[in-house]
Automatic annotation (TrEMBL):
The lineage of its organism: Bacteria, Bacillati, Actinomycetota, Actinomycetes, Micrococcales. It comes from the Bacteria. Residues 6-149 form the NADPH-dependent FMN reductase-like domain. Pfam families: FMN_red. This is Flavodoxin. Signal peptide: none annotated. Gene3D superfamilies: 3.40.50.360. InterPro entries: Flavoprotein-like_sf, FMN_Rdtase-like_dom.
Length: 201
């Protein structure tokens, strides 16, 4: 069963500059590829995603095209840096736009996001990966995504130091291990949900 994944990256840094959040998101996509999942990546800051909680905020809004990719994918990877102990503002804007999915259902009354799996990737130079992933998990669950067991991978540097994930000589084994586990569990769960969807309400 061929599955697809979409990684939404909430870095505040526009392309083509390097991004630690994008690096970790790409590593998740690479790990998913080992389970026959093809992936695509969107750096949100490169697009004019308007503030709001509707599926389409009018002319020039880039979210409708991104939303179409979200709904076409089996797995959503949401990657964010930590700023001031929080997910980035760009990541939060994507979550606000996903709020519109609470008003969208299929012919049997299920949210269009039901049956889709979401995993989280977090990078930062301060404590807070658990807090940040908890915020994202709850929001993603609220709008209909299913979170697999061990559905997060992260790296945080030591407090008050300036090392970036992208500047490490190699990926630390704990991060590589959690990335592999999150990908494996996400692919497994997505296949189960594709084969046996949630019941209609």
């Amino acid at each position: 069963m061929q599955l697809t994944a979409l990684a939404l990256v909430g870095t505040l840094t526009p392309s083509p500059a390097r991004s630690s959040s994008e690096l970790l998101a790409r590593q998740v996509l690479d790990a998913l590829a080992e389970h026959d999942v093809t992936g695509e990546l969107v750096r949100l800051v490169d697009h004019d995603v308007r503030p709001g909680v509707q599926a389409d905020m009018g002319e020039g809004d880039a979210w409708p095209a991104i939303r179409a990719k979200v709904l076409a994918a089996d797995i959503l990877v949401l990657a964010t840096p930590i700023w001031l102990g929080q997910p980035s503002s760009v990541t939060k804007r994507a979550l606000e736009r996903l709020d519109a999915e609470l008003s969208e259902t299929d012919d049997e009354g299920r949210l269009l996001t039901y049956g889709k799996v979401a995993v989280v990737a977090v990078v930062g130079n301060e404590d807070g990966a658990h807090h940040t992933s908890a915020e994202l998990f709850q929001a993603l669950d609220d709008v209909g995504f299913t979170i697999p067991a061990a559905g997060v991978t992260y790296w945080v540097g030591r407090a008050m130091e300036g090392t970036d994930y992208q500047d490490l000589d190699e990926t630390p084994e704990p991060t590589a291990g959690t990335t592999a586990t999150a990908a494996r569990n996400a692919a497994h769960l997505a296949r189960l949900l594709r084969a046996q969807p949630y019941p209609a309400g």
